[in-house]
Amino acid sequence: MSERAKQFSLIATAERHLCDAAESVFIPIIRAMEAEAGLCITEVRVTFNPALDSGGPIANCTIVGAYAATPVAHHDSQHAVESTRAPGAGSSASQE
């Protein structure tokens, strides 16, 4: 296996582990933000920069994809918004 292939494999494995660990933390936060802002968030980017002088790392979160949602009455508070777009409207090729 080439050095490049080894690096790709290490990154892919770490990415899977990160997604598994982060999902239980991010989903409740994102759902709360959606309900608060009236959005359906489809993509979030987190940039992590080691802080040299501040004593800790700095995370910068960016909502990359989102669209307006309308409030609906649900008994399940995790689903407090409903899309105002038709299913599949505006999705990228990677989401189809």
Q: How would you describe this structure to a colleague?
A:
This protein has 1 helix and 3 strands, in the order H-E-E-E. A hairpin with an 8-residue loop joins strand 1 (39-49) and strand 2. The protein has one helix at 3-37, and strands at 39-49, 58-71, 81-83. It has a 3-stranded antiparallel beta sheet with strand order 1-2-3, covered by helices on one side. 1% of the residues are buried. The chain has 96 residues and is of the alpha+beta class. It is extended, with a radius of gyration of 17 Å.
Biggest sheet, spatial arrangement of strands: 1-2-3
- Relative strand content: 25-35%
Helix content: 25-40%
> Given the helix and strand composition, which structural class is it?
alpha+beta
What is the multimeric organization of the chains shown? single chain
Overall residue-averaged pLDDT value: 78
| C-alpha termini separation | 32 Å
- Enumerate the spans where pLDDT stays under 50 for 5 or more consecutive residues: 77-96
Major sheet attributes: 3 strands, antiparallel
Shape: extended
| Tally of contiguous helical segments | 1
Integer-rounded radius of gyration? 17 Å
How are helices and strands ordered from N to C? HEEE
Strand tally is 3
